[in-house]
Amino acid sequence: MELRLCESDFRFMCVVWENEPVSSHDLVLKCNEQLGWKKSTTYTVLKKMSEKGFAKNEGSVITSLVAKKDVQEYESNRVVNTSFDGSLPSFLASFFGGKKISEDEAQELKRLIDNYRE
After folding, report:
1. Is there a contact between 74 and 54 (Cβ–Cβ < 8 Å)?
2. Maximum Cα–Cα distance across the chain
3. How confident is the model at residue 36 (pLDDT cuts 50, 70, 90)?
């Protein structure tokens, strides 16, 4: 299953992930509040996400079938592989783009690298 979502589908799924389990009524209200969507748009996207296997609507209660972390991992790997020829250092250099990071962020990145080192 491809875990790639367009931006609007990802934003919809973020509403689901942040509120699940969520009633269809509450999901419509949340999508209107957070995304500016009408009821019909919410139900159309919910149907599409259900058909793609990202969410399920059972008894008017919506839950996710795919974790947010899994979608984020898939997308970040896709970007690194397609835009940076699989080079994580090239991706990071571009991502930082001259920005400075805090000492805490640098330490966290070092911990992550140590945890994933071969």
Report:
1. no
2. 50
3. very high
Q: What angle do CA 8, 14, 19 make, to 5 degrees?
A: 135
Q: List, for residues 6-19, the tens digit of each pLDDT value.
A: 999 999 999 999 99
The pLDDT value given to residue 98: 82
What span, in angstroms and rounded, lies between the C-alpha atoms of 40 and 60? 15
**Rounded Cα distance, 19 and 62, in Å:** 9
Residue closest to 31 by CA, chosen among 48, 6, 23, 39: 39
pLDDT in tens, 51-62: 999 999 999 999
DSSP string, 35-63: H---HHHHHHHHHHHHHTTSEEEETTEEE
